[in-house]
Amino acid sequence: MTKPADDLQTLLIASVPNLRAFANSLCGDPTRADDLVQDTLVKAWTNLDSFEKGSNLKAWLFTILRNTYFSELRKRRREVEDADNALAERMSILPNQHVHMDLIDFKKAFGILSDDQKEVLLLVGAEGFSYEEAAEITGAAVGTVKSRVNRARVALTKALGLESGEDFTSNPEFMGLVRLGQSVVRG
């Protein structure tokens, strides 16, 4: 007496030529058609419990093959051919650890400044106040504010190993660090 699984296995194997012909007519590539048939048979075998006995096995297999083909087709539309990795090599995400390390360096450098220098650098550099407004806020003379800002910039330039003479107020990266430093100082 044959087992039901053996009968089903025989019916699956007998369906291979028809499946291969259908797959080839769908994709037009014999190698890809063989892959589709293989995928279909694997899916059918692993989902035999969903096959209703007495229904049309061939129709069930063709449905699996068709659905597999169209699922792969939709997936391939979203993918880009990159056999030589030319696209992959151009696509990169730059590491962002340097921002964290820059912030640590800035905190250390900012910590060496006097309280007066920190105050005016934050007012002028981070908050965007003019020298006159900073002078009014701090109660110091405009010349004193300019001098403190200049000394603070020179000290930060030296501590951070940057080029002297650089205009940091127009450097968005540096000013971003100043703003981050400000939030750290306040926090």
Characterise the protein shown here:
With 187 residues, this protein is mainly α. It has two domains: 1-92, RNA polymerase sigma factor, region 2, helix turn helix motif (Rna Polymerase Sigma Factor, Chain: A, Orthogonal Bundle); 94-187, Orthogonal Bundle (Arc Repressor Mutant, subunit A). 73% of the residues lie in helices and 0% in strands. The chain has nine helices and no strands. The termini are far apart. The model has no long low-confidence stretch (mean pLDDT 80).
Which structural traits does this protein have?
single chain; 187 residues; mainly alpha; Rna Polymerase Sigma Factor, Chain: A; Arc Repressor Mutant, subunit A; 2 domains; 9 helices; 73% helix; rod-shaped
- Could you tell me how far the N terminus lies from the C terminus, measured between alpha carbons in angstroms? 81 Å
The biggest sheet, with number of strands, parallel, antiparallel or mixed sense and barrel status, is: none
Compressed to H and E, one letter per element, the order equals HHHHHHHHH
Shape: rod-shaped
Low-confidence stretches: none
Number of domain modules: 2
Provide the structure class: mainly alpha
Strand-residue fraction? under 5%
Range of helix content: over 70%
Instruction: Tell me the name of the CATH class of the largest domain.
Output: Mainly Alpha
The DSSP helix count reads: 9
Number of β-strand runs:
0
Q: What name is given to the CATH topology of the largest domain?
A: Arc Repressor Mutant, subunit A
CATH homologous superfamily descriptor of the largest domain? Winged helix-like DNA-binding domain superfamily/Winged helix DNA-binding domain
Mean pLDDT: 80
Assembly category: single chain
CATH architecture of the largest domain: Orthogonal Bundle
Radius of gyration: 35 Å
